[in-house]
Amino acid sequence: MNKSKLKKIYNKIFPSFVFYLEKELKNCNSILDLGCGPNSPIKDLKNKPYSVGVDIFQPSINKSKKKRIHNQYFKMDVLKIDKKFKPKSFDCVIAIDLIEHLTKRTGIILIKKMERIARKKIIIFTPNGFLKQHEYDNNLNQVHISGWSVSEMRKMKFKVIGFNGFKKLRGEKGEIKLKPKLFWLIVSDFSQFFLKNNPEKAFQLLCVKEIK
């Protein structure tokens, strides 16, 4: 059996983040992707809706444009989205690996702005608690400033799904910490079955809030 077939089988057993994201975006025809970066998971959706990417770092926008991930782009501070986009102007507003780069106060402000712009739901993906991360790719905005817990997100009425296995197995940038890495990666993937509905010990949190 070749590697591509093995990969397909493995992905069926252990669904990727994109699988869950696509499931949540099923009835959404427009997406505002905040802090879209150079490689947004939007690119891997099978049924790609209309999307707008927002990022403050021009090199990331340039890389994303080359991959044609979004239909339109804006270089701007995400905290100014309410000045650019009207209320209820997108079915879904997403922030993948973004709020941990903001202070807790500004993160909450951003969430409220996301709620005003979204018609159907908002989606946030973030580490479970504070995860230390330094600058990389010459981008000062990559530094982590805050951490967000399951209880905090639930208090704000988010549905929370645990992601990427046990928190203790991974470190900065989500890298497996233990060796041999392949073995512990498989352990991490297996633990997903338990942590999906028990996110308190998961490495990352997929948080979804329906807008009424």
What is the CATH top level name?
A: Alpha Beta
> Which radius of gyration do the C-alpha atoms yield?
17 Å
Structural class: alpha/beta
How much of the polypeptide forms β-strand, as a percent range? 15-25%
Output the CATH topology. Answer: Rossmann fold
Total strands: the figure is 7
CATH-wise, what's the superfamily?
Vaccinia Virus protein VP39
Which percent bin holds the helix content?
25-40%
The overall pLDDT average reads 93
Q: How many structural domains in the coordinates?
A: 1
Q: What is the H/E string? A: HHEEHEHEHEHEHE
Low-confidence stretches: none
CATH architecture: 3-Layer(aba) Sandwich
List the total number of helices: 7
| Global geometry | globular
Structure description:
The protein has a single domain, classed as Vaccinia Virus protein VP39 (Rossmann fold). By secondary structure, the chain is α/β, with parallel strands linked by helices. The model has no long low-confidence stretch (mean pLDDT 93). It has seven helices and seven strands. 34% of the residues are buried. Strands 3-2-1-4-5-7-6 form a seven-stranded mixed beta sheet. The N and C termini lie far apart (48 Å).
What's this, in brief?
The chain has 212 residues and is of the alpha/beta class. The protein has seven helices and seven strands.
Q: Could you list some keywords that capture this structure?
A:
alpha/beta, Rossmann fold, seven-stranded mixed β-sheet, globular, 7 helices, 212 residues
